[in-house]
Amino acid sequence: MEYLIERIEGHTAIVTMNNPPANTWTAESLKALKAKVLELNANKDIYALVLTGEGNKFFSAGADLKLFADGDKGNAASMAKYFGEAFETLSQFRGVSIAAINGYAMGGGLEVALACDLRIAESQAVMALPEATVGLLPCAGGTQNLTALVGEGWAKRMILCGERVTADKALSIGLVEEVVESGTALSAAIALAAKVANQSPSSVTACKTLIQAGRQMPRSLALPIERELFVGLFDTEDQAEGVNAFLEKRKAQWKNG
Questions:
Q1: Quick one: which of 61, 57, 58, 3 has its CA closest to 32?
Q2: Of 6, 39, 85, 111, catalytic
Q3: Rounded CA separation 95/208 (Å)
Q4: For the chain, N or C: smaller number of CB within 10 Å?
C-alpha cells in the first residue's frame, strides 16, 4: 500500500495520508513520512508542504491500538521511536508545513498536525489526545507541542480530562489558525502555501528556526542568534535578489540558497 500520496503543485508538495478507513499510522507509514520530509528538504524547488488525510471523515485517527494490545514493551519502544523521529523530522522541515485537517484528528493524528507550522481545520473536524483514556500517553510531541500552542490549562483539559474540541473551539484556543467550510481545507492550505513562494526560502528557514527556538531557550539567548542569522543571510543569493527586486520594482526570482 502507498501510505503517503504526493503531488507537486508549484513550489508546494501536497502529501495525503492514505491508510483507510481512518488513516492510522503504522511503523511503515511513519518511516515513509520521515523519508518523505528528508526528500523534500533536499529539493530546493519545494518551499511548502501541505499534509491532509484521504477521504472526508478522517484526517488521521493516530496509531492503530491493535499494535499495543499485547502489552509488548519492546514494540511500544519501537513505535514511540518511529513516531518521534517522523514528527520531529516534520517539525524541522526547512520550509512551511500546513496541516489541512479534513476530519477527525485523534491522538497521533492530532500530533502530526501539531508538528506542522500551521493548521487549517474544516468546520466538522474534531480534535483530541485521548491516549490516557486507554492507559497510554501522547508520546509523539503531544504534551509539548499542544502546551506550546494552547497553554497549560487547555493542554491539561485535552490530555488529562480527555476533552475533545470542535473546530470552532480549536480556533478560539489557538490550536488551529483558521476554520473553513467542509471540503475546503486542502484548497485553503494550498492557497496559503502559495503565499510562501513570495518569501525568500532562506529567510523562511531562518525565521522558522528562530520562532521555534523560543520553545527551548530564553529570549536573552534567542535575541543574539536572531542578529547572527540576519547577518548570515548576506551569504545567500536570495538576500541580494530580494532587496534588488524590491528596488527595481520586479518579482524576486528565488534561488533557495
A1: 3
A2: 111
A3: 8
A4: N
